[in-house]
Design a protein that fits this description.
The protein is α/β, with parallel strands linked by helices. It has two domains: 159 residues, Lyase, Ornithine Decarboxylase, Chain A, domain 1, CATH 2.40.37; 172 residues, TIM Barrel (Alpha-Beta Barrel). It has twelve helices and 21 strands. Strands 4, 14, 15, 16, 17, 18, 19, 20 and 21 form a nine-stranded mixed β-sheet that branches. The protein has an eight-stranded parallel barrel with strand order 5-6-7-8-9-11-12-13, surrounded by five helices. It has a three-stranded antiparallel β-sheet with strand order 1-2-3. Strand 7, helix 5 and strand 8 form a beta-alpha-beta unit. The relative contact order is 0.16. The structure holds ligand LLP. The site of ligand LLP has 20 residues, from helix 10 and helix 11.
Length: 421
């Protein structure tokens, strides 16, 4: 469920007409609904209410500091994968004890930054990383709390580019090496083993792969405890999928996910951490764009928008589907016209949707991409020297620009011409 509905003939974000935002900031822009973000966070929080838990929002999905503050103010933790994301979480007021640090390539500088500023846990993905962390922590006279990310070798049954739980991916330590790696962690100075971590992929639409992975994590936790390790936290990662179309059968709900977690690992008495990104942010955001031209093509008509693959790369990168809807409502029985919906970027791949039935569209009118809150703005680039688009936050009847559109000068003044040129 989200808070983007038609009222009085126009798409609204909560109580704000999209047209009002477009008039104030111009298109394209991203708009997020604070009520939807809060609602989705609460669903997970309630789904795990049977035990100790912390819902850590995966900052990579949507990292605007204002969004992080909405969630942080509700008590959310943050799952971060870089020094930049750490800085964002802290700037949003989230204390270090609610931040977990994931990622296969943490640098020593990033480890130091987190240890200095405070960190709940490092999710360590390899032995070399474990040694580096031990060295950094020892040199600072600190102790790093560690969970080792185990790769359970399960097929997440999702898009290959976002499946992380099979053994040939770069992620985690093979689960059959857990005993050795935990023994090593226990031996190293500056390391305190606190838990086990797993994340098998993103946009999972079935609980079965989670169930299989968490079952393996439960077994390994018992084995590690028997070997003397104090495993008191389980970080179960993110990955629960969202409905990208209104017609498709919906993925499992957070409450069903929470029940499955209880069934698989609930008896261990561990504090549960999860790292959802997409389910919290995905359907809490739209990308709003305008039609520049309607161009008749040899095969189909093109709807050429002012947003391109640099603003929303998911269709080009993962063949992802995003529903596209007109901002101005049409009567229910309006006949559709079939368009290829494209951007202005000079690449054949700059196509959002092929042969998409839409109501007949006029140049100048606005359209919205649904489900664009997660992995939308954060994956944008300035390709074709198109400045990053603004982000807007709506909360009931208020809206505010939470990242403004840079001017061309701001964009090009980051470049410098050497004085010898
Ligand atoms: N935890 C870890 C360690 C992760 O790598 C990820 C996502 C998450 C949590 C959050 O997963 P979520 O709940 O959002 O599925 N750019 C791709 C998605 C990449 C996901 C990367 N890792 C896309 O647009 O579909």
């Amino acid at each position: 469920m989200d808070h983007f509905d038609y009222r009085r003939g126009q798409l609204h974000a909560e109580d704000v007409p999209i047209g009002d935002i477009a008039a104030a900031v111009g298109t394209p822009f991203y708009v997020y609904s604070a009520s939807t973000l809060r609602r989705h966070y609460r669903l997970f929080d309630e789904a795990l209410s049977w035990g100790d838990h912390l819902v850590c929002f995966a900052v990579k999905a949507l990292s605007n500091v204002a969004v992080l503050k909405v969630l942080g103010d509700m008590g959310a933790g943050m799952d971060i994968v870089s020094g930049g994301e750490y800085a964002r979480a802290r700037a949003a007021g989230v204390p270090g004890e609610r931040i977990v640090f994931s990622g296969v390539g943490k640098t020593r500088a990033e480890m130091r930054q987190a240890l200095e500023g405070g960190i709940r846990q490092f999710n360590v993905e390899s032995e070399p990383e474990l040694h580096a962390l031990s060295e950094v922590a020892t040199s600072m006279g600190a102790v790093a709390p560690v969970a080792v990310r185990l790769n359970p070798d399960v097929d997440a049954r999702t898009h290959a580019k976002i499946a992380t739980g099979s053994r040939e991916t770069k992620f985690g330590v093979p689960i059959d090496r857990a005993a050795d790696v935990y023994a090593e962690a226990a031996r190293l100075p500056g390391i305190e083993v606190v838990g086990v971590d797993v994340h098998i992929g993103s946009q999972l639409t079935d609980l079965a792969p989670f169930r299989e992975a968490y079952g393996k994590i439960a077994d390994v936790t018992r084995m590690l405890r028997a070997a003397g390790h104090d495993i008191r936290r389980l970080d179960l990662g993110g990955g629960l999928g969202i409905p990208y179309t209104r017609s498709n059968s919906a993925p499992p709900l957070p409450v069903e996910y929470g029940r499955m977690v209880q069934e698989t690992v609930g008896d261990l008495g561990c504090e549960i951490e999860i790292e959802p990104g997409r389910l919290i942010a995905g359907n809490a955001g739209l990308l709003v764009a305008s039609v520049i031209y309607v161009k008749s093509g040899a095969v189909r008509d093109f709807l050429i928008l002012d947003a391109g693959m640099n603003d929303l790369v998911r269709p080009a990168m993962y063949e992802a589907h995003h529903d596209i809807v007109p901002v101005r409502a049409r009567p229910p029985a309006t006949p559709t016209h079939v368009y290829d919906v494209v951007g202005p970027v000079c690449e054949t791949g700059d196509i959002f949707a092929r042969a998409r039935p839409l109501p007949p569209m006029e140049p100048g009118e606005a359209v919205a991409f649904r489900s664009a809150g997660a992995y939308g703005a954060v994956m944008a680039s300035e390709y074709n020297s198109r400045p990053l688009v603004p982000e807007v936050l709506v909360d009931r009847d208020q809206f505010a620009v939470i990242r403004r559109r840079p001017s061309f000068d701001e964009m090009i003044n980051r470049d410098t011409i050497p004085e010898w040129l």
